[in-house]
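Whiteboard transcription, Tuesday session. T.W. wrote the structure tokens on the left side:
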């Protein structure tokens, strides 16, 4: 009897437990349904907002940071002064990389303007000293605002932000994004035991890790004194050009969709190795649209001027040309009137041979190596008067001979015509074409 009562009791408890279990299951089902509905509504809202913000990864990031369809329209051009410092010599901290960078999220255009490290910032040119070079300003008191003030005086751009970037930032960033593929323009071999700097890179396209990236951007000349060819830009000019080209390649690699998930790591690298006055709330507004950026929309130039020897102080100094600088700033940051790539009938960029194109279709770069500021303008007038269109201009190291460098496969007859128009020039060819032009003309002292 006792066993029978016990069994009935247990049976009753089991029934009660099953009822409670069923009630809990029903409750969890209701909760689950509510959660699914919330997710569907939230997900639908997120998808809707993403599409309103332009769709894709850019639209998704814009939604995450709280943007709406009008946020981008209200964003202006972002300008920042980039100061690259090497930390291998304690207490020195010369800013050997000085670049003005700008980005406009609405036009998706950007600019890199290199400021030569030897640019004079003093008041008495005839008594100029190394202490007055722009790369020495930061090392005096470690105040980036002094360099910023000097750059604003030179350019008139009214730049508000600066970012002092240690060498370690470049090394760690390049490694974090899996390396950067880059076409090293020449063989590079240099050793400096004092700085513990050892450069050993071979010419050609290759995947560079952080260590090799540092070697690339710090290279000026080889142990035997050789450096970049004149048409590329010798010593400091060549290094500044390589730095700009590498920054472009790094931006392109960093902006790849797969690196979006490394954003936290990238921000951590920045926090450790960058000194800046950029407010995060300002920076985050631009981040969603940078993923849309194509380096094809990047303009790169160097501050125009020339190197001069100051005999009184036994110092080489770079003196910028105020008139040419004003013209260049107008072109880069305001006019944006840049010649487009030659297009085919269906609107796509023309590729391949230039044999059958007209003079106006050839993308021409003219660099002033004459040491005379008027020579560049005269050469441009003569070339454009002959039917050519000059797409890019700039200044390079002083050279005695004018050279006409074929960067693609422009017909020999056209190159000879350019020589006839200028009245001088040595025709050559080059495999180096980081500037993406068909022909580079370096105006020498022989041009009259």
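and on the right, the sequence the group agreed on:
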């Amino acid at each position: 009897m006792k066993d029978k009562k016990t069994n009935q009791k247990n049976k009753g408890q089991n029934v009660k437990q099953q009822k409670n279990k069923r009630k809990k299951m029903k409750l969890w089902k209701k909760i689950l349904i509510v959660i699914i509905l919330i997710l569907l509504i939230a997900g639908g809202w997120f998808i809707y907002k993403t599409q309103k913000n332009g769709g894709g990864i850019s639209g998704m990031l814009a939604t995450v940071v709280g943007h709406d369809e009008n946020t981008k329209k209200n964003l202006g051009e972002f300008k920042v002064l980039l100061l690259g410092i090497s930390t291998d010599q304690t207490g020195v901290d010369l800013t050997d990389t000085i670049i003005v960078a700008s980005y406009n999220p609405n036009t998706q255009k950007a600019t890199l303007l290199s400021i030569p490290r030897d640019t004079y910032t003093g008041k008495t040119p005839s008594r100029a000293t190394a202490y007055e070079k722009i790369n020495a300003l930061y090392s005096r008191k470690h105040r980036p605002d002094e360099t910023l003030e000097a750059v604003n005086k030179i350019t008139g751009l009214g730049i508000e932000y600066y970012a002092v970037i240690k060498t370690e930032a470049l090394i760690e960033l390049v490694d974090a994004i899996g390396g950067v593929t880059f076409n090293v323009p020449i063989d590079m071999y240099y050793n400096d035991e004092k700085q513990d700097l050892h450069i050993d890179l071979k010419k050609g396209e290759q995947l560079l890790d952080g260590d090799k990236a540092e070697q690339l951007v710090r290279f000026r000349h080889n142990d035997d004194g050789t450096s970049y060819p004149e048409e590329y830009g010798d010593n400091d000019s060549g290094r500044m050009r390589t730095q700009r080209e590498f920054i472009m390649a790094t931006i392109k690699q960093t902006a790849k969709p797969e690196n979006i998930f490394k954003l936290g790591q990238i921000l951590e690298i920045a926090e450790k190795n960058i000194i800046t006055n950029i407010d995060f709330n300002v920076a985050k507004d631009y981040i969603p649209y940078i993923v849309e950026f194509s380096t094809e929309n990047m303009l790169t130039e160097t501050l125009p001027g020339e190197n001069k020897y100051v005999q009184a102080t036994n110092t080489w100094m770079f003196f910028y040309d105020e008139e040419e600088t004003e013209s260049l700033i107008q072109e880069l940051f305001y006019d944006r009137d840049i010649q487009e790539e030659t297009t085919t009938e269906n609107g796509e960029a023309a590729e391949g041979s230039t044999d059958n194109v007209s003079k106006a279709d050839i993308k021409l770069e003219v660099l002033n190596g004459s040491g005379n500021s008027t020579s560049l303008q005269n050469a441009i007038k003569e070339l454009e008067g002959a039917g050519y269109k000059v797409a890019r201009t700039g200044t390079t190291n002083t050279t005695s001979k004018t050279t006409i460098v074929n960067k693609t496969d422009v017909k020999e007859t056209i190159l000879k015509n350019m020589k006839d128009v200028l009245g001088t020039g040595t025709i050559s060819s080059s495999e180096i074409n980081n500037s993406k032009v068909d022909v580079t003309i370096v105006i020498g002292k022989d041009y009259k």
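Someone added at the bottom: The domain at 72-335 is CATH 3.40.630.190 (Aminopeptidase).
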